Amino acid sequence: MQLSTPMKVDEQKPKQQNLSRAIDRSANERTFLAWMRAAIALMAFGFVIVRLRVVQLPVQYRHAMGWKLGLIFSLVGLATVLISTVHYFAIRHQIDHDTYEPPDGMVFFFSFAVGLLGIGVIYAILAAALSSTSLVIPD
Amino acid sequence: MQLRLKGLSMLLKFKSTKVNTEKTQRPNPSRVRDHLANERTYLAWMRTAISLMGFGVVIVRLRAFHPPMLQTPGNGWKLGLLFSAVGLLTVLFSTKHYFGVRHDIDYDTYEPTDRWVILFSLAIAILGAGVIYYMFTVPSISFGLMTVE
């Protein structure tokens, strides 16, 4: 393709750019869907945490590991939906105007939020385990 | 905000992702696609991490059902803790990996790495062995109670 004459390149170039733009746009859409899947995973696990907790735990353990954790999971998922939708349209605009820059703040923010959730999960597991042992041992 | 991000990236020893402005010529025509694919890979790692943490919670939730009747704290929470810890580590490593690959794409020096994949499958295999071990060591009465739900 590079070996063709300048004339041919001239007429081929806009077409090629259009093609690449279509590929870039669909890549952007796939990325958006990946964000959505991540958000759905967060919300689903928030729901599972709350659900298991309500159904299975006897009354005296209800304070141990909270519905709060599930709520925070779901809220982070919801925020991800909103932010990534805005992000999708911003990237679409950037692709059309050839000013694409890969994101960093958003990735940092998401990792930060999920990392905090992980710390919360570990804390909750430890708290539940320790409180159940301390409740069991006196018995 | 920008400054804080820079400080954070320095703290975590991420590679600098500054794109030099004279490179706007863009020698790599698939640069946008590569970056977007990198972002998707990052998100796939994050989904895996979220699943691990969620599964850790689920194990502990199911486990927490037992103490009132069996009178023993048991080891199930340790398995859940291990799952969540692996999930948390995955968050850290995938973020680091994302910024590393982002730098490599901009400078055309991307090389696929086997290290993280091997390490990760090793970790998951250990977790799977833990789950199987746990399934065969819990008393069958608790299984009966779990299947009712």
What's the helical proportion of residues of chain B? over 70%
Query: How many strands, what sense, and barrel or not for the largest sheet of chain B?
Result: none
Mean pLDDT of chain B, nearest integer? 75
Computed CA radius of gyration of chain B, to the nearest angstrom: 21 Å
Number of strands of chain A: 0
For the record, the count of structural domains of chain B works out to 1
Mean pLDDT of chain A: 76
Structural class of chain B: mainly alpha
Total strand segments of chain B = 0
Biggest sheet architecture of chain A: none
Q: How would you describe the shape of chain A?
A: elongated
Identify low-pLDDT runs of chain A: 1-7, 135-139
Description:
The complex is a heterodimer of chains A (about 140) and B (about 150). Chain A is mainly α and about 140 residues long. Chain A has one domain (about 5-135). Helices cover about 80% and strands about 0% of the residues of chain A. Chain A is elongated and about 65 Å long. Chain B has about 150 residues and is mainly α. Chain B has one domain (about 30-149). Chain B is built from six helices and no strands. Residues about 20-25 and about 140-145 of chain B have low confidence and may be disordered. Classes of the chains: A mainly alpha (about 140), B mainly alpha (about 150).
